[in-house]
Amino acid sequence: MITFHVNGTRHAVELSPDTPLLWLLRDHLKLTGTKFGCGEGLCGACTVHIDGRAQRSCITPIKDVQGKRITTIEGISTSHPVKKAWLAEEVSQCGYCQPGQVMSAVALLKQTPHPTDSDIDSAMSGNLCRCGTYGRIRRAIHTAATGGKGGKRS
To answer: Domain segments of the chain: what residues?
Structure first.
């Protein structure tokens, strides 16, 4: 039995300890906001927070989350500054990568409340966007960091 919290709710499951966290979230808990991209931890679409740190759920076996607190995109309030900035800066195109992008941005701002472009590029480098909205992502992170006063124009 593996026990953990997801978005503030305690869960206990009996699954193979090597089951990727992504599939536990999507298939068993029906939290489908976290996306499958590459299955190798390279694209960032599956990013969640584990005890406050951005991590790839597709390569995290559930045995590694025993007793931990997990936050998925569903656990980030619609009033969170990052989600508001994403809308204000019109970041999304296809939207597939956006849950992972938002999760990485939230973790970045928690650690570095006023990031430079270099900080943002470094923190977000593991999140791929096929639509190429990287400039808008950077602006949205600056917007969130400044409390909605607008992001730097890249």
So the answer is: 2-75, 81-145
